[in-house]
């Protein structure tokens, strides 16, 4: 009796359970397929970037052996180090060995410091992250209002002035603006800090927790260090953010002009709504999703494009580390840095897609 009841129960439940599994799979299959498709495209992109960087590094006119042993070493030492570095093997074999090392989490040691590359990047990247974050804040706070104001006053004198300023900020060499800024605001007016992240008198006062000096000094409640860090970061962050300010201003103006020409704006104006409500609550609200793309991509560009600013201001960040590694011919550090830059841009694109789905329900389908 019990066996008969159990068999009947299974005969009813198992088909229902199986249908539930099939329905769930069919429901989530597009998302799963999209997720794994995205992962495969990311992996292929990174492998292609890795291969390109690796092979370019091997044909560069820089001898990594001499970078290790120096130009005064004898031939026997040179040959020994040459073989230890695996440079006597075919280039494709070197590449396969390097891929195998990466698969085990080994990015090699940096010639500049002698430490693992991952440790070096983890040490210097927070400084660049801090600099780029302040720069993108400048870009958002300044660029968006300028773009909106220019669009509202299209064709007027203020519109032309904002467009000229945007063109200037977008086309002027960053290193030149950096040097002029140091001469005027540091050497002449003495209203900002000089090179580095903090005054030498405060160097090492705050223990690194996040690696970002503004946050670490605030957590430690060391306001003297915090004030010094603010004075040092304002000028390089603002100059680094000039490109973002110009780009965000131009794109905001373009997006706003498109919205201000729509019929719903005319309808809102006919209804007698206040001008600021029409501009900010109606027109600006409809360009937020487009602005998210601009801001996230600009942020990625700032993270990898801080090389010149970090060189001019002696900012001990990721850009300066990459420049020093290139000059030294340290391909372990260069390849790892390029991979990080690729991951930054891929992450920014994925973040943009995610934000699109959050703010625009139409994209969720």
Automatic annotation (TrEMBL):
<dbReference type="InterPro" id="IPR000515">
    <property type="entry name" value="MetI-like"/>
</dbReference>
<protein>
    <submittedName>
        <fullName>ABC transporter permease</fullName>
    </submittedName>
</protein>
<feature type="transmembrane region" description="Helical">
    <location>
        <begin position="6"/>
        <end position="28"/>
    </location>
</feature>
<dbReference type="Pfam" id="PF19300">
    <property type="entry name" value="BPD_transp_1_N"/>
</dbReference>
<dbReference type="GO" id="GO:0005886">
    <property type="term" value="C:plasma membrane"/>
</dbReference>
<feature type="transmembrane region" description="Helical">
    <location>
        <begin position="291"/>
        <end position="315"/>
    </location>
</feature>
<keyword id="KW-0813">Transport</keyword>
<keyword id="KW-1003">Cell membrane</keyword>
<keyword id="KW-0472">Membrane</keyword>
<keyword id="KW-0812">Transmembrane</keyword>
<keyword id="KW-1133">Transmembrane helix</keyword>
<feature type="transmembrane region" description="Helical">
    <location>
        <begin position="335"/>
        <end position="356"/>
    </location>
</feature>
<dbReference type="Pfam" id="PF00528">
    <property type="entry name" value="BPD_transp_1"/>
</dbReference>
<dbReference type="GO" id="GO:0071916">
    <property type="term" value="F:dipeptide transmembrane transporter activity"/>
</dbReference>
<dbReference type="InterPro" id="IPR035906">
    <property type="entry name" value="MetI-like_sf"/>
</dbReference>
<feature type="transmembrane region" description="Helical">
    <location>
        <begin position="164"/>
        <end position="189"/>
    </location>
</feature>
<dbReference type="InterPro" id="IPR045621">
    <property type="entry name" value="BPD_transp_1_N"/>
</dbReference>
<feature type="domain" description="ABC transmembrane type-1">
    <location>
        <begin position="125"/>
        <end position="352"/>
    </location>
</feature>
<feature type="transmembrane region" description="Helical">
    <location>
        <begin position="229"/>
        <end position="249"/>
    </location>
</feature>
<comment type="similarity">
    <text>Belongs to the binding-protein-dependent transport system permease family.</text>
</comment>
<feature type="transmembrane region" description="Helical">
    <location>
        <begin position="131"/>
        <end position="152"/>
    </location>
</feature>
<feature type="transmembrane region" description="Helical">
    <location>
        <begin position="35"/>
        <end position="56"/>
    </location>
</feature>
């Amino acid at each position: 009796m019990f066996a008969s009841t159990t068999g009947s129960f299974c005969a009813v439940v198992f088909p229902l359970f199986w249908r539930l599994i099939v329905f769930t799979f069919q429901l989530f299959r597009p998302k799963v397929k999209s997720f794994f498709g995205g992962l495969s495209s990311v992996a292929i992109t990174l492998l292609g970037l890795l291969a390109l960087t690796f092979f370019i590094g091997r044909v560069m006119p820089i001898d990594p052996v001499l970078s290790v042993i120096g130009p005064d070493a004898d031939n026997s030492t040179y040959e020994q180090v040459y073989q230890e570095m695996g440079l006597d093997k075919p280039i494709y074999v070197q590449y396969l060995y390097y891929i195998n090392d990466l698969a085990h989490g080994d990015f090699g040691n940096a010639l500049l410091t002698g430490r693992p590359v991952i440790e070096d990047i983890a040490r210097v990247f927070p400084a660049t992250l801090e600099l780029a974050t302040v720069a993108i804040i400048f870009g958002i706070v300044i660029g968006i209002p300028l773009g909106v104001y220019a669009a509202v006053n299209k064709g007027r004198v203020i519109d032309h002035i904002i467009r000229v300023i945007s063109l200037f900020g977008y086309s002027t060499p960053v290193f030149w603006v950096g040097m002029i800024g140091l001469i005027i605001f540091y050497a002449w007016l003495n209203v900002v800090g000089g090179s580095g992240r903090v005054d030498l008198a405060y160097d090492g006062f705050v223990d690194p927790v996040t690696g970002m000096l503004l946050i670490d000094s605030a957590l430690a409640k060391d306001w003297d260090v915090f004030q010094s860090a603010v004075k040092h970061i304002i000028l390089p962050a603002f100059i680094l953010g000039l490109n973002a300010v110009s780009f965000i201003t131009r794109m905001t103006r373009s997006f706003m002009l498109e919205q201000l020409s729509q019929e719903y704006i005319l309808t809102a104006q006919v209804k007698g709504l206040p001008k600021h409500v029409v501009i900010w609550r109606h027109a600006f609200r409809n360009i937020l999703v487009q602005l998210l793309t601009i801001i996230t991509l600009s942020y990625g560009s700032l993270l990898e494009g801080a090389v010149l600013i970090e060189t001019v201001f002696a900012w001990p960040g990721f850009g300066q580390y990459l420049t020093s590694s290139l000059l030294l011919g340290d391909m372990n550090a260069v390849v790892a840095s390029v991979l990080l830059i690729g991951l930054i841009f891929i992450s920014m694109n994925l973040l943009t897609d995610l934000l699109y789905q959050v703010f625009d329900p139409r994209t969720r389908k």
